[in-house]
Write a structure and sequence with these properties.
- It is a single chain.
- This protein is 7% helix and 43% strand.
- With 285 residues, the chain is mainly β.
- The chain folds into two domains: 31 residues, no CATH class; 247 residues, Neuraminidase.
- A four-stranded antiparallel β-sheet has the order 1-2-3-4, with no helix packed on it. A four-stranded antiparallel β-sheet has the order 5-6-7-8, with no helix packed on it.
- Strand 7 and strand 8 form a beta hairpin.
């Protein structure tokens, strides 16, 4: 069998062997036009950003549903953003992105640029990020089964709460909510790190993330149930929306009366109007 390579392919392979981009990365750079595995979503008044686990990288999503690549991660396992899993938007427009192989949370300027590590590899498996008004960064660490905390400027990571957390969110009052893998599947956490159960007895099949409305209603994505749950303030959980087009709803954000759901199996982001339950796929075919 004969193998014929073009000059460009030989050059790409040479760069890979010398420690640069792999040949696979070079091809992806030229052909990537939409998210491969959209895992997380962050939305504010100006922008929407989508974490793509398999590209790997982060996309910026236009109002017209056109994704453009904001930052590309590396195919090399110990390089930044090799397996990004979570994202948060800061008030100045900068992003925080959690990456599992490098055990890190990176800050990237709104204008783009190189990812800046904040903890010197001080986090195990960052699954979700929340930032409070005092510039404390909270991270759900799947490896240690805790919520950890560090200053937004960067520095030492400390254990904040002994809660086995998968998804984190701050409500409009600044109180931390957490989706857990334990019997109490949804909890509120006070400033001292004490957890108060909101949902117990495991009604969710495989919960991922949570957001809370101004009225105190919570919404939780459930991948195995192909559903979004609603937990009314002071009430019991109800399966609020289920089935197609949702296949494996994971990432979750809320903005101006709308939920934004990242579904990696549907390879799309769904905008859901809370009042009407109208669903709109944001990434156009």
């Amino acid at each position: 069998m004969k193998f014929v390579c073009t000059f460009a392919q030989v050059a790409a392979l040479s760069v890979a062997l010398l420690g640069g981009l792999s040949a696979e990365e070079t091809v992806d750079e030229e052909t990537a036009s939409r998210p491969k595995y959209p895992l997380a979503i962050a939305v504010d008044a100006a922008e929407a950003y989508v974490v793509d686990l398999d590209l790997p990288g982060v996309w910026k999503l236009s109002a017209e549903g056109q994704p453009t690549l904001f930052v590309r991660g590396s195919k090399w396992i110990r390089k930044p953003l090799n397996r990004p899993r979570c994202v948060a938007i800061l008030p100045d427009g900068d992003l925080l992105i959690g990456d599992t192989p490098t055990r890190e949370v990176y800050r990237i300027a709104a204008a783009g640029g190189e990812p800046q590590p904040l903890t010197a590899g001080g986090i195990g498996i960052p699954m979700s990020i929340a930032v409070d008004a005092d510039e404390n960064v909270y991270v759900a660490d799947l490896e240690t089964r805790t919520i950890v905390r560090f200053p937004l400027a960067g520095g030492k990571v400390e254990t904040f709460a002994q809660v086995n957390t998968r998804g984190l969110s701050l409500d409009p009052q600044g109180q931390l909510w957490a989706v857990t893998q334990d019997k109490d599947q949804l909890v509120r956490i006070d400033s001292a790190g004490k957890a108060t159960p909101v949902v117990s007895d495991r009604p969710f099949q495989f919960p991922h993330n949570v957001v809370v409305t101004d009225s105190g209603d919570a919404f939780v994505t459930d991948g195995y149930a192909k559903a979004v749950w609603r937990i009314p303030a002071g009430g019991k959980p109800e399966q609020w929306l289920a089935g197609p087009p949702l296949i494996n709803p994971v990432g979750l954000a809320i903005h101006e009366g709308n939920l934004f759901v990242a579904d990696p199996h549907a390879k799309n982001i769904f905008k859901i109007e809370i009042d009407s339950k109208q669903i709109t796929p944001l990434i156009k075919e």
